[in-house]
Amino acid sequence: MKAINNQYKTFLWNKTIIYKMLKTILIIVVVIALVILLFRIFGQPRFSYAIYQEHFDNKSLYDRLGGVFAIAAVVNYFSDSLIDNPTVGRGSKNPALRDWHTNKLDRLPGLKFMRTLWLCSLAGGPFKYSPTAPGKCPFSLKH
Predict the structure, then answer these.
(1) Where are the domains of the chain?
(2) pLDDT tens for residues 35-63?
(3) What gap in Å lies between CA 15 and CA 12, rounded to an integer?
(4) In degrees to the nearest 10, what's the CA dihedral of 134, 119, 70, 124?
């Protein structure tokens, strides 16, 4: 009698597992069917490539970055961070970089301005960057 009870309990246990599996599969099938139905009723999701193009393709990279003031803020932070950088800043092993970041910091505002113009020009902004050759000035008094 005890063996029959154990077999019956095992049968009930297996039956419970089967019911749980069938219930889970049924829930998954219903969810998939609902998703398919919603896509058929409402169409594709609202965010599509056409909306992306409409919003972003009309603007240049310069405009998407926020214009000259946003670019200048990034250049300002970047330039100040380079001074304290151990690889290229004051503690650099390169003597020219170390000298520039310790003795020539009075040139940093002009460098920031030129970097800002350069990035604005690259991003498609209304500024034109025209570099000069190092050490030569077009309005020099040395003539």
Answers:
(1) 2-43, 56-122
(2) 777 777 766 555 556 666 666 667 788 88
(3) 5
(4) 140
